[in-house]
Amino acid sequence: MIIRIDELSDVPIYLQIRNQIVMGISSGELAGGEQLPTVRALALEMGINTMTVSKSYQLLKQEGYIMTDRKNGARVRTEIRVQGGISDSNKTELKRIVSEARLSGVSRQEIVSLVDEYYGTDDKG
Amino acid sequence: MIIRIDELSDVPIYLQIRNQIVMGISSGELAGGEQLPTVRALALEMGINTMTVSKSYQLLKQEGYIMTDRKNGARVRTEIRVQGGISDSNKTELKRIVSEARLSGVSRQEIVSLVDEYYGTDDKG
DNA sequence: TTCTTTGTATTAAGGTTAGTAATACAAAGA
DNA sequence: TCTTTGTATTACTAACCTTAATACAAAGAA
Which structural domain range is residue B22 located in? Predict the structure, then answer.
Protein backbone atom coordinates (compact mmCIF):
# COMPACT_ATOMS: atom_id res chain seq x y z
CA MET A 1 0.00 0.00 0.00
CA ILE A 2 1.22 3.44 -0.87
CA ILE A 3 1.29 5.89 2.00
CA ARG A 4 1.30 9.56 1.17
CA ILE A 5 2.01 12.36 3.60
CA ASP A 6 0.42 15.76 3.18
CA GLU A 7 3.02 18.22 4.36
CA LEU A 8 0.45 20.99 4.58
CA SER A 9 -1.96 19.04 6.75
CA ASP A 10 -2.50 19.92 10.39
CA VAL A 11 -2.54 16.21 11.14
CA PRO A 12 0.82 15.02 12.52
CA ILE A 13 2.79 12.65 10.30
CA TYR A 14 2.55 9.74 12.71
CA LEU A 15 -1.24 10.12 12.74
CA GLN A 16 -1.46 10.38 8.98
CA ILE A 17 0.40 7.09 8.71
CA ARG A 18 -1.79 5.50 11.35
CA ASN A 19 -4.96 6.75 9.67
CA GLN A 20 -3.98 5.53 6.23
CA ILE A 21 -3.17 2.08 7.55
CA VAL A 22 -6.52 1.92 9.35
CA MET A 23 -8.31 2.96 6.15
CA GLY A 24 -6.28 0.43 4.19
CA ILE A 25 -7.35 -2.34 6.55
CA SER A 26 -10.98 -1.31 6.34
CA SER A 27 -10.98 -1.13 2.56
CA GLY A 28 -9.30 -4.50 2.29
CA GLU A 29 -6.23 -3.09 0.62
CA LEU A 30 -4.35 -4.42 3.62
CA ALA A 31 -5.35 -8.00 4.35
CA GLY A 32 -5.34 -9.65 7.75
CA GLY A 33 -1.94 -11.14 8.46
CA GLU A 34 -0.27 -8.98 5.85
CA GLN A 35 3.23 -7.82 6.60
CA LEU A 36 3.76 -4.09 6.98
CA PRO A 37 6.98 -2.37 5.96
CA THR A 38 9.61 -2.20 8.67
CA VAL A 39 9.84 1.07 10.55
CA ARG A 40 13.25 1.71 9.06
CA ALA A 41 12.14 0.91 5.52
CA LEU A 42 9.07 3.09 5.72
CA ALA A 43 11.01 5.93 7.35
CA LEU A 44 13.66 5.77 4.64
CA GLU A 45 11.09 5.57 1.87
CA MET A 46 9.21 8.58 3.18
CA GLY A 47 12.23 10.56 4.24
CA ILE A 48 11.18 10.81 7.86
CA ASN A 49 12.56 9.68 11.17
CA THR A 50 12.25 6.09 12.31
CA MET A 51 10.77 7.18 15.61
CA THR A 52 7.92 8.87 13.81
CA VAL A 53 7.01 5.62 12.08
CA SER A 54 7.55 3.72 15.31
CA LYS A 55 5.05 6.02 17.00
CA SER A 56 2.47 5.12 14.36
CA TYR A 57 3.06 1.42 14.82
CA GLN A 58 2.91 1.66 18.60
CA LEU A 59 -0.42 3.43 18.34
CA LEU A 60 -1.81 0.90 15.89
CA LYS A 61 -0.60 -1.90 18.13
CA GLN A 62 -2.15 -0.36 21.24
CA GLU A 63 -5.44 0.09 19.40
CA GLY A 64 -5.45 -3.54 18.33
CA TYR A 65 -5.09 -3.03 14.59
CA ILE A 66 -1.67 -4.63 14.17
CA MET A 67 0.74 -6.90 15.97
CA THR A 68 4.42 -6.18 16.28
CA ASP A 69 7.10 -8.67 17.04
CA ARG A 70 10.82 -8.27 17.25
CA LYS A 71 12.40 -9.82 14.22
CA ASN A 72 9.03 -10.61 12.71
CA GLY A 73 8.09 -7.01 12.14
CA ALA A 74 4.55 -5.71 12.08
CA ARG A 75 1.54 -7.53 10.71
CA VAL A 76 -2.14 -6.68 10.37
CA ARG A 77 -4.20 -8.53 12.94
CA THR A 78 -6.46 -11.18 11.52
CA GLU A 79 -9.07 -10.45 14.16
CA ILE A 80 -9.39 -6.74 14.86
CA ARG A 81 -10.41 -6.13 18.46
CA VAL A 82 -13.59 -4.10 18.41
CA GLN A 83 -13.86 -1.20 20.77
CA GLY A 84 -17.60 -0.83 20.96
CA GLY A 85 -19.14 1.46 18.39
CA ILE A 86 -18.32 4.98 17.36
CA SER A 87 -16.33 7.01 19.86
CA ASP A 88 -17.72 10.26 21.23
CA SER A 89 -14.98 12.26 19.56
CA ASN A 90 -15.72 10.62 16.22
CA LYS A 91 -19.41 11.40 16.63
CA THR A 92 -18.57 15.03 17.29
CA GLU A 93 -16.26 15.07 14.28
CA LEU A 94 -18.95 13.51 12.11
CA LYS A 95 -21.45 16.09 13.25
CA ARG A 96 -19.01 18.88 12.45
CA ILE A 97 -18.34 17.51 8.97
CA VAL A 98 -22.05 17.02 8.23
CA SER A 99 -22.81 20.53 9.49
CA GLU A 100 -20.13 22.13 7.36
CA ALA A 101 -21.23 20.16 4.34
CA ARG A 102 -24.87 21.09 4.81
CA LEU A 103 -24.05 24.77 5.20
CA SER A 104 -22.05 24.69 1.99
CA GLY A 105 -24.93 23.30 0.04
CA VAL A 106 -24.16 19.60 0.06
CA SER A 107 -27.22 17.38 0.03
CA ARG A 108 -27.85 14.61 2.52
CA GLN A 109 -27.69 12.11 -0.31
CA GLU A 110 -24.22 13.23 -1.36
CA ILE A 111 -22.94 12.59 2.13
CA VAL A 112 -24.60 9.20 2.32
CA SER A 113 -23.06 8.29 -1.03
CA LEU A 114 -19.63 9.11 0.35
CA VAL A 115 -20.31 6.98 3.41
CA ASP A 116 -21.32 4.11 1.12
CA GLU A 117 -18.16 4.53 -0.92
CA TYR A 118 -15.93 4.55 2.16
CA TYR A 119 -17.75 1.75 3.91
CA GLY A 120 -17.55 -0.53 0.92
CA THR A 121 -20.12 -2.56 -0.92
CA ASP A 122 -20.09 -5.76 1.07
CA ASP A 123 -22.93 -7.23 3.09
CA LYS A 124 -22.12 -5.53 6.36
CA GLY A 125 -24.59 -2.68 6.24
CA MET B 1 -26.66 28.37 22.90
CA ILE B 2 -24.58 26.61 25.50
CA ILE B 3 -20.97 26.04 24.55
CA ARG B 4 -19.07 23.36 26.38
CA ILE B 5 -15.33 22.85 26.28
CA ASP B 6 -13.82 19.41 26.65
CA GLU B 7 -10.59 19.95 28.54
CA LEU B 8 -9.36 16.49 27.61
CA SER B 9 -9.92 16.90 23.90
CA ASP B 10 -7.04 17.21 21.48
CA VAL B 11 -9.00 19.89 19.68
CA PRO B 12 -7.84 23.39 20.66
CA ILE B 13 -10.33 25.51 22.60
CA TYR B 14 -10.71 28.11 19.87
CA LEU B 15 -11.57 25.34 17.42
CA GLN B 16 -14.04 23.69 19.77
CA ILE B 17 -15.86 27.00 20.06
CA ARG B 18 -15.77 27.52 16.32
CA ASN B 19 -17.04 24.01 15.67
CA GLN B 20 -19.91 24.24 18.13
CA ILE B 21 -21.07 27.51 16.62
CA VAL B 22 -20.96 26.02 13.12
CA MET B 23 -22.98 23.02 14.33
CA GLY B 24 -25.40 25.36 16.07
CA ILE B 25 -25.95 27.29 12.87
CA SER B 26 -26.49 24.12 10.88
CA SER B 27 -28.95 22.67 13.38
CA GLY B 28 -30.88 25.92 13.52
CA GLU B 29 -30.16 26.44 17.17
CA LEU B 30 -28.44 29.62 16.06
CA ALA B 31 -30.63 31.57 13.67
CA GLY B 32 -29.42 33.84 10.91
CA GLY B 33 -28.92 37.34 12.25
CA GLU B 34 -28.74 36.13 15.82
CA GLN B 35 -26.41 37.97 18.13
CA LEU B 36 -23.50 36.00 19.55
CA PRO B 37 -22.07 36.65 23.00
CA THR B 38 -19.31 39.24 23.11
CA VAL B 39 -15.79 37.93 23.21
CA ARG B 40 -15.37 39.24 26.74
CA ALA B 41 -18.64 37.78 27.97
CA LEU B 42 -17.97 34.38 26.49
CA ALA B 43 -14.39 34.39 27.75
CA LEU B 44 -15.54 35.30 31.26
CA GLU B 45 -18.32 32.74 31.22
CA MET B 46 -15.98 29.97 30.14
CA GLY B 47 -13.03 31.03 32.20
CA ILE B 48 -10.70 31.45 29.26
CA ASN B 49 -8.80 34.29 27.67
CA THR B 50 -10.52 36.86 25.48
CA MET B 51 -7.99 36.33 22.74
CA THR B 52 -8.93 32.67 22.52
CA VAL B 53 -12.55 33.58 21.87
CA SER B 54 -11.47 36.32 19.51
CA LYS B 55 -9.53 33.74 17.55
CA SER B 56 -12.70 31.68 17.15
CA TYR B 57 -14.69 34.67 15.94
CA GLN B 58 -11.99 35.73 13.51
CA LEU B 59 -11.98 32.25 12.03
CA LEU B 60 -15.78 32.14 11.76
CA LYS B 61 -15.75 35.56 10.17
CA GLN B 62 -13.08 34.61 7.67
CA GLU B 63 -15.00 31.48 6.75
CA GLY B 64 -18.16 33.48 6.17
CA TYR B 65 -20.26 32.07 8.98
CA ILE B 66 -20.59 35.25 11.03
CA MET B 67 -20.16 39.00 10.72
CA THR B 68 -18.35 41.08 13.27
CA ASP B 69 -18.67 44.77 13.75
CA ARG B 70 -17.13 47.04 16.31
CA LYS B 71 -19.77 48.10 18.77
CA ASN B 72 -22.34 45.82 17.18
CA GLY B 73 -20.61 42.61 18.17
CA ALA B 74 -20.86 39.39 16.25
CA ARG B 75 -23.92 38.08 14.45
CA VAL B 76 -24.69 34.96 12.44
CA ARG B 77 -24.80 35.70 8.75
CA THR B 78 -28.20 35.45 7.19
CA GLU B 79 -26.69 34.11 3.98
CA ILE B 80 -23.84 31.74 4.59
CA ARG B 81 -21.30 31.90 1.81
CA VAL B 82 -20.91 28.46 0.38
CA GLN B 83 -17.44 27.19 -0.33
CA GLY B 84 -18.21 24.49 -2.84
CA GLY B 85 -18.84 21.07 -1.44
CA ILE B 86 -16.94 18.95 1.01
CA SER B 87 -13.29 19.84 1.46
CA ASP B 88 -10.61 17.26 0.80
CA SER B 89 -9.58 17.20 4.43
CA ASN B 90 -13.18 16.59 5.50
CA LYS B 91 -13.47 13.77 3.00
CA THR B 92 -10.35 12.19 4.43
CA GLU B 93 -11.68 12.64 7.96
CA LEU B 94 -15.00 11.10 6.96
CA LYS B 95 -13.23 8.15 5.42
CA ARG B 96 -11.19 7.67 8.59
CA ILE B 97 -14.29 7.79 10.79
CA VAL B 98 -16.21 5.38 8.58
CA SER B 99 -13.24 3.02 8.48
CA GLU B 100 -12.82 3.01 12.25
CA ALA B 101 -16.53 2.50 12.74
CA ARG B 102 -16.67 -0.36 10.29
CA LEU B 103 -13.70 -2.09 11.89
CA SER B 104 -15.35 -1.82 15.30
CA GLY B 105 -18.47 -3.53 14.09
CA VAL B 106 -20.70 -0.58 13.29
CA SER B 107 -23.12 -1.19 10.43
CA ARG B 108 -23.47 1.07 7.44
CA GLN B 109 -27.03 1.82 8.49
CA GLU B 110 -25.94 3.04 11.93
CA ILE B 111 -23.60 5.55 10.33
CA VAL B 112 -26.25 6.72 7.89
CA SER B 113 -28.67 7.18 10.77
CA LEU B 114 -26.16 9.41 12.49
CA VAL B 115 -25.71 11.42 9.31
CA ASP B 116 -29.48 11.83 9.11
CA GLU B 117 -29.64 12.95 12.70
CA TYR B 118 -26.88 15.50 12.26
CA TYR B 119 -28.12 16.73 8.91
CA GLY B 120 -31.61 17.33 10.18
CA THR B 121 -34.99 16.31 8.90
CA ASP B 122 -35.73 19.14 6.52
CA ASP B 123 -36.19 18.92 2.77
CA LYS B 124 -32.58 19.48 1.84
CA GLY B 125 -31.55 15.92 1.21
C1' DT C 1 29.31 -18.18 17.73
C1' DT C 2 28.85 -14.06 14.96
C1' DC C 3 26.14 -11.09 12.13
C1' DT C 4 22.02 -8.96 10.84
C1' DT C 5 17.42 -7.21 11.31
C1' DT C 6 13.51 -6.35 14.08
C1' DG C 7 10.88 -3.10 17.25
C1' DT C 8 11.92 -0.27 20.98
C1' DA C 9 14.17 2.95 24.29
C1' DT C 10 16.83 7.02 25.58
C1' DT C 11 18.41 11.69 25.51
C1' DA C 12 18.82 16.01 23.48
C1' DA C 13 17.53 19.61 20.62
C1' DG C 14 14.68 22.68 17.57
C1' DG C 15 10.37 24.21 15.80
C1' DT C 16 5.56 25.15 15.93
C1' DT C 17 1.27 25.93 18.09
C1' DA C 18 -2.04 26.96 21.89
C1' DG C 19 -3.15 29.59 25.51
C1' DT C 20 -2.64 33.17 28.92
C1' DA C 21 -1.59 37.76 30.59
C1' DA C 22 -1.57 42.61 30.45
C1' DT C 23 -2.41 46.41 27.94
C1' DA C 24 -3.89 49.33 24.40
C1' DC C 25 -6.38 51.09 20.28
C1' DA C 26 -10.31 52.65 17.07
C1' DA C 27 -15.14 52.81 16.36
C1' DA C 28 -19.59 53.94 17.72
C1' DG C 29 -23.46 54.57 20.65
C1' DA C 30 -25.26 56.49 25.29
C1' DT D 1 -17.13 61.90 28.18
C1' DC D 2 -17.90 57.22 29.17
C1' DT D 3 -18.67 52.66 27.93
C1' DT D 4 -18.58 48.62 25.06
C1' DT D 5 -17.31 46.47 20.93
C1' DG D 6 -13.76 43.70 18.19
C1' DT D 7 -9.00 43.84 17.46
C1' DA D 8 -3.93 44.32 18.03
C1' DT D 9 0.49 43.86 20.35
C1' DT D 10 4.04 41.80 23.12
C1' DA D 11 5.79 38.49 26.11
C1' DC D 12 5.75 34.29 28.26
C1' DT D 13 4.75 29.30 29.41
C1' DA D 14 3.56 24.84 28.17
C1' DA D 15 2.80 21.11 25.20
C1' DC D 16 3.48 18.58 21.12
C1' DC D 17 5.90 17.07 16.85
C1' DT D 18 9.95 15.80 14.68
C1' DT D 19 14.61 14.89 14.14
C1' DA D 20 19.12 13.15 15.51
C1' DA D 21 22.31 9.94 17.26
C1' DT D 22 22.76 5.92 19.77
C1' DA D 23 21.86 1.85 21.99
C1' DC D 24 19.50 -2.42 23.54
C1' DA D 25 17.09 -7.10 23.48
C1' DA D 26 15.23 -10.68 20.73
C1' DA D 27 15.53 -13.90 17.18
C1' DG D 28 16.73 -15.81 12.83
C1' DA D 29 20.70 -16.53 9.44
C1' DA D 30 25.32 -17.53 8.26
Answer: 13-76
Determine whether the interchain pair B108/A94 forms a contact, defined as Cβ–Cβ distance below 8 Å: no
Average per-residue pLDDT for chain B: 93
The larger pLDDT score, comparing residue B82 to residue B23, is at B23
Contact status of B121 with chain A (Cβ, < 8 Å)? no
**Please, are residues B30 and A103 in contact by the beta-carbon 8 Å criterion?**
no
Among A27-41, B18-32, B47-61, B66-80, the range scoring the smallest mean pLDDT is B66-80
Same domain, A46 and A97: no
Q: Is residue A7 a part of any domain in this protein?
A: no
Kindly determine whether residue A99 and residue B118, on different chains, have CB atoms separated by under 8 Å.
yes
pLDDT, tens digit (0-9, with 9 covering 90-100), for A88-106: 999 999 999 999 999 999 9
Residue A80 pLDDT greater than 90, yes or no: no
Nearest CB partner across the interface for B25, out of A27, A103, A105: A103
Residues B70 and B17 in one domain: yes
Question: In angstroms, how far apart are the furthest CA atoms of chain A?
Answer: 52
In chain A, which residues have their Cβ closer than 8 Å to the Cβ of B90?
A: 97, 100-101
- Note whether A58 and B81 are within 8 A (CB): no
Query: How many other C-beta atoms can be found within 10 angstroms of the C-beta atom of residue B22?
Result: 23
Whole-model pTM above 0.85? yes
Contact A60, B99 (CB under 8 A): no
